[in-house]
Design goal:
Helix content is 16%, strand content 34%. The protein is built from two helices and ten strands, in the order βββββββαββαβ. A hairpin with a 3-residue loop joins strand 5 and strand 6.
Length: 148
């Protein structure tokens, strides 16, 4: 089976199929438009997306009345950062921006992939954080730019 488009996201549909197969992906793989994967039931699937769009946790690759195949993201090693003041947030955003480190936000939490240098920086700046295994819904994406 070759999948060329995402049919929706399980989080936003009302009618779900009776049986669900899962495709487990690391968050980095969510950025890829062409993949060869295997479901948790051993079925091979080729993904060749027509749209230039990242995959997301919960995306539906196939669905009929009885079956559906859904992407599930594997937990990442994450630093969950909890700045307590606007000053801490500004200082941290400046430091991470200089390192071109991609971040995501979930409510008041800033999420970055684990890096021991960032962990040391957070301790140095006395900014609350915790290291944890956590599922992210979308890939961490670097935003390119030039210094010309």
């Amino acid at each position: 089976m070759i999948v060329e488009e995402v049919l929706g996201n399980i989080e936003f549909i009302e009618k779900k199929a009776k049986h669900m197969e899962k495709v487990y992906l690391e968050s980095d793989a969510l950025r890829k438009r062409i993949l060869r994967v295997k479901t948790d039931h051993g079925n091979e699937i080729g993904i060749r997306l027509k749209e230039n769009k990242d995959l997301m946790d919960g995306d539906i690759l196939y669905m009929d009345e009885n079956n559906m195949i859904v992407i599930h993201t594997i937990d990442d090693d994450i630093l969950t950062i909890l700045p307590t003041t606007l000053g801490q947030m500004g200082d941290l955003a400046h430091q991470l921006g200089n390192r071109h480190l991609p971040a995501q936000f979930d409510g008041d939490e800033m999420l970055v992939q684990y890096d021991y240098l960032v962990e040391e920086l957070l301790m140095e700046l006395d900014i609350p954080f915790r290291r944890e295994k956590r599922k992210v819904k979308q890939a961490f994406r670097h935003i390119g730019h030039s210094h010309d």
